[in-house]
Amino acid sequence: MAPIILAYWDIRGFAQPIRLLLANSGLEWEDKLYVTGPAPTFDKTCWFGEKETLGFDFPNLPYLIDGDVKVTQTIAIIRYLARKTGLAGQSDDQQRRIDLITEEWHDFKGPFYPLCYNPEFHSLKPAYLTNAALKLARFSKYLGDMAWFAGDKLTYVDFLMYEIFDEHKLLEPTILSAFPNLEEFQARFEALPKIAEFIASPKFIKYPINNRMATFGG
Ligand SMILES: N[C@@H](CCC(=O)N[C@@H](CS)C(=O)NCC(=O)O)C(=O)O
């Protein structure tokens, strides 16, 4: 059987939680990386030249090809893979937590990438960090002493949360220091055997998190 193909820019970005989930699954998968050209034009012909030719209903990056199945939209991809690998939650209680955390992840991530790409990044960062700390306090309180965000079982939202927290640690290394349970969550996630193996492997993209035109993380 052909390996699953996950396509994205050659950065962490939206694809990284999907990569982590694939790595944890033990499924055969490959990255297809599109590479933006250098400044000042940051040419993206490698993607836009073939975007409409690949047979997607809503072509975009990231995209996933699994045999006859073609999926775009980060959350649609991650849910497809979560259902395939038993990480989509089971009980009503788990589903409710997953739904809530997915939306909170969206809201937390929303202002992050615009900040990273903003030419005024350095002057905007302090106010961003103040707001982020308020959100992190809520995530910390919600997680409480649970192992994972939907309870005692790992689900796909943990991949979303791990990645966005780790990117925030690159933004500000001490950002989780006031929240020991979030630090422990990160360590617990990184200790999952297949995740630890993936992070140590050459396939793992640590940097860049953003594309070349970003002020931060590019
Ligand atoms: N809502 C989409 C947004 C996807 C998106 O904005 N992708 C950006 C990279 S983060 C891109 O370059 N898309 C290629 C395109 O617009 O054709 C998702 O979550 O996957």
TrEMBL record:
Reactions performed catalytically: RX + glutathione = an S-substituted glutathione + a halide anion + H(+)
UniProt-recorded Gene Ontology molecular function terms: glutathione transferase activity
Keywords from the named record: Transferase
Listed EC numbers: 2.5.1.18
Keyword Transferase: yes
Residue ranges occupied by any GST N-terminal domain in the UniProt entry: 2-89
Keyword GTP-binding: no
InterPro entries per record: Glutathione-S-Trfase_C-like (IPR010987), Glutathione-S-Trfase_C_sf (IPR036282), Glutathione_S-Trfase (IPR040079), Glutathione_S-Trfase_N (IPR004045), GST_C (IPR004046), GST_mu (IPR003081), GST_superfamily (IPR050213), Thioredoxin-like_sf (IPR036249)
Domain GST C-terminal: 91-209
Pfam families: GST_C_3, GST_N
Enzyme class: transferase
GO BP term, example: glutathione metabolic process
Family note: Belongs to the GST superfamily. Mu family.
Free-text function comment from the UniProt entry: Conjugation of reduced glutathione to a wide number of exogenous and endogenous hydrophobic electrophiles.
Protein name: glutathione transferase
Species whose genome carries this gene: Folsomia candida (Springtail)
